[in-house]
Design goal:
Layout lengths: L1 H13 L10 H8 L3 H38 L4 H50 L3 H6 L2 H43 L1 H48 L1 H6 L3 H53 L5 H40 L24 E8 L10 E8 L4 E5 L6 H8 L7 E6 L2 E2 L5 H8 E4 L10 H6 L7 H10 L3 H6 L17 H13 L5 E5 L7 H15 L3 E6 L10 E6 L2 E6 L1 H7 L2 H11 L9
Parallel strand pairs: 3-8, 3-9, 6-7, 7-8
Antiparallel strand pairs: 1-2, 1-4, 4-5, 9-10
Helix pairs in contact: 3-4, 3-6, 3-10, 4-6, 6-7, 6-10, 7-9, 7-10, 9-10, 14-16, 16-17, 18-19
The structure holds adenosine-5'-diphosphate and magnesium ion.
Length: 612
């Protein structure tokens, strides 16, 4: 029990404070560990490149010194004297390029592999979460953790290693050479640079805020387009194209004006920083020039100083940009890792499997109470007791919203009851292997069959991965689907389109039945399986269902009472309780709620409000 509660806590707690979750360094270390060797090499190459970068200004200064000598004296050959220095510089450029190439290749290798591992781990952990978890989260939000957040984390990681390391080394190295060249000029630089950086950082943070707003606005616009394109049938059916155009247009306009504002801000920032940098160069030349005039500094050293100080400034600007990136990367990483450590309360597998020859399929709900985890105050089932005898058909009827689908969900163990127990052949479902229960014992057919965008063959085989072609054909025949599948030019290889969009409702439902039958389930749940169909499709589907029900424990959930007359036992539920039970004749004779429902439906008027 303690374990259960301990696991429950993060689920309940994660809802309000998603954004505040801390970055999980331990988990990050696990992803990084396999790449440590490569990372060490990359870091060494990056350090090497930075050190070479520090050398270059000094050599450039020496070259300028030679140039200056020739402007004064005009003796000897400039080319011979400068050749070795030039060659050395060229070699250094080459080494610098090679090192840069090397560490960038290695870093992208590490980054991409870590991103792949992270996506894999996150996806598999997401798939393991409780159904209750998905009730509370938006799919789009989960998908964006897999895509955007991993992407953001990866690029921050790469930037920190490449840019961060290089910038820090360059700042340190160049400051050393600067102070060796001229301590006085360096002191001047040390006063001016932080002041400018402070102003720059302020402006930069305003720009970052603007950029975040910009991104949010783009996401809003994308959301509108996504909704309209994803539900294009509904949009078309209501002739809402124009309204959707306007809605998208308005969001686009908003995001354009935001982006323009950002563009102006960036332009201002760039313009101002250009002025600042140029003034710094001018100032250095001025002060340095007076030092040169006073014989305290050579012209070449001044040149070296200029180039090195430019490197320092560029590096420090890089570091300030990097800081923002680190903050964003850490929060993206925290979002990725948050769902990686979350463990579901109902595991996917593990527990007892009843051997096939001992499996009868007797199901009992013993005084079950239940409320959905995302709505704890609202009790859906109250002291609910129901028995499904093996091989018999039991119908569950009652008003919409009365909790019928909830009963089916508890049987599939999508949720666990808050009190009481559900048993299969006398064993509590909580002691049985959930994967075995869902994969081999229970066949579930719902009102809205969901198909995957692949072939008919693959869709049916979804019920049992190793099913042979023969098994698929048999299941399709049982489900009354074989004929229509054969009539398609591509037969079983027909692609059904996204969510089965290219099939009629009745055809989709028959494929869903075939998919459930291919695993030869002992227990069959039919949750309003025919209520979305027209009467002709209903007849064909009902025929398939009647055939599939023979010899199985069946729970038929139905709103339309015409479909439950064949049941051995009818249970009427209202407000989460069983209020009547018996055969069709018994219940009619009793003249209670069922008789009233039958009378109303015969007259074709809406179902009555049931008394509490
Ligand atoms: P029925 O199938 O009889 O129409 P349901 O079992 O679907 O009824 O729903 C019973 C009650 O539980 C309804 O009030 C519904 O709003 C609520 N409910 C259903 N599914 C969820 C869910 N995933 N989270 C929270 N409440 C739910
Ligand atoms: Mg329902």
């Amino acid at each position: 029990v303690a374990l259960c509660e301990a696991e429950e806590a993060p689920l309940a707690g994660s809802k309000p404070c998603v954004e505040n979750s801390r970055f999980n360094w331990k988990l990050f270390w696990q992803f990084l560990r396999p790449h440590l060797l490569v990372l060490a090499v990359a870091i060494m190459l990056a350090l090497g490149a930075a050190l070479v970068n520090v050398q270059i200004p000094l050599l450039l200064g020496q070259l300028v010194e030679i140039v200056a000598k020739y402007t004064r004296d005009h003796v000897g050959s400039f080319l011979t004297e400068s050749r070795s220095l030039g060659t050395y510089l060229l070699i250094l450029y080459g080494i610098q390029g090679l090192l840069t190439f090397g560490y960038l290749v290695l870093l992208s290798r590490i980054g991409e592999r870590m991103a792949e591992d992270m996506r894999r781990a996150l996806f598999s952990n997401l798939l393991r979460q409780d159904i209750a978890f998905f009730d509370a989260k938006k799919t789009g939000q989960l998908v964006s953790r897999l895509t955007t957040d991993v992407q953001e984390f990866k690029s921050s990681f790469k930037l920190v290693i490449s840019q961060g390391l290089r910038s820090c080394t360059q700042v340190a190295g160049c400051l050393v050479s600067l102070s060796m060249l001229s301590p006085r000029l360096t002191l001047l630089l040390l006063v001016a640079t932080p002041t400018l950086m402070g102003v720059g950082t302020l402006l930069g943070s305003a720009l970052r805020r603007l950029s975040r707003q910009c991104q949010e606005q783009i996401a809003r616009a994308t959301g509108v387009a996504d909704e309209a394109l994803g539900n294009v049938r509904t949009v078309r059916a209501f002739a809402m194209e124009h309204r959707e155009e306007e809605r998208y247009g308005a969001e686009l306009e908003e995001s354009r004006s935001k982006a323009e504002e950002l563009g102006r801000g960036i332009a201002l920032f760039q313009g101002l920083s250009n002025i600042a940098f140029n003034c710094m160069v001018l100032g250095t030349l001025f002060v340095g020039g007076s030092l040169v005039a006073g014989q305290e500094l050579t012209g070449g050293d001044l040149m070296s100083f200029l180039v090195a100080s430019q490197t320092v400034q560029r590096s420090m600007a890089n570091l300030s940009v990097l800081f923002g990136q680190v903050v964003r990367g850490l929060s993206a990483g925290a979002r990725v890792f948050e769902y990686m450590t979350l463990s579901p309360r109902i595991p996917l597998a593990g527990g007892y499997c009843i051997p096939r020859e001992h499996l009868h399929g007797a199901i009992t709900f013993h005084n079950v109470c239940f409320s959905y985890p995302c709505r704890p105050g609202f009790q859906v089932l109250k002291d609910f007791t129901l028995t499904l005898p093996p091989g018999k058909i039991v119908a569950l009827v009652g008003q919409s919203g009365g909790g019928k689908t909830t009963v089916a969900s508890l049987l599939e163990r999508f949720y666990d009851p808050t009190a009481g127990a559900v048993t299969l052949d006398g064993r509590d479902l909580r002691t049985l292997d959930p994967s075995w229960l869902r994969g081999q014992v229970i066949g579930f057919i719902s009102q809205e069959p969901v198909l995957f965008g692949t072939t008919i063959m693959e869709n049916i085989r979804f019920g049992k991965l190793g099913a042979s072609d023969e098994e698929v054909y048999t299941a399709a025949q049982e489900a009354n689907a074989h004929e229509f599948i054969r009539s398609f030019p591509e037969g079983y290889n027909t692609i059904v389109g996204e969510r089965g969009a290219t099939l009629s409702g009745g055809q989709k439902q028959r494929l869903a039945i075939a998919r459930a039958l291919v695993k030869q389930p002992t227990v069959l749940i039919l949750d309003e399986a025919t209520s979305a169909l027209d009467s002709e499709s209903e007849r064909v589907v009902q025929e398939a269902l009647d055939r599939a029900s023979a010899g199985r424990t069946v729970l038929v959930i139905a709103h339309r009472l015409s479909t439950v007359r064949g049941a051995h036992h009818i249970v009427v539920m209202a407000h989460g309780r069983v209020c009547e039970a018996g055969t069709h004749e018994e219940l009619l004779k009793k003249g209670g709620l069922y008789a009233e429902l039958i009378r109303r439906q015969a007259l074709d008027v809406p179902a009555p409000e049931m008394p509490r």
